[in-house]
Amino acid sequence: MAELNTSPLTLEQFAVLKMYLKVDQDIEDDMIMMLVHDAADELAKAVQFGSTPEDYLNKPVSRDRFFTALMKQVKEDYDYRGMGAEVMRFPLQTSATNIINQLRTEIGGDLDADQSDDGTHPTHQL
Length: 126
What we know:
Phage_HK97_gp6-like, globular, mainly alpha, Hypothetical protein yqbg, Phage gp6-like head-tail connector protein
């Protein structure tokens, strides 16, 4: 059996994630990593468009909070996989959204958080 590629997570982070998911077998590892890739990409782009999960997982200032948001989102996706339209779910967990908003303002992904609305920022010009 081929070794599992856990990138962008370290093996230790993947083990913590599996513990958080309460998964103690290896049979679903590939599926869990698919959920990780989807959620990590979604979270990274929510913080700042064009960014990658590695941008946050490799920096000490954002690593733990980004990983926490990732764990929460993967757990939500894992627990509700296969559910139909009768289950109402938000696109992102509220706690994950809170972490995204913190990272946006701290890392610079939210241009409006530290810019005055004087029309001088390129996004405000026509």
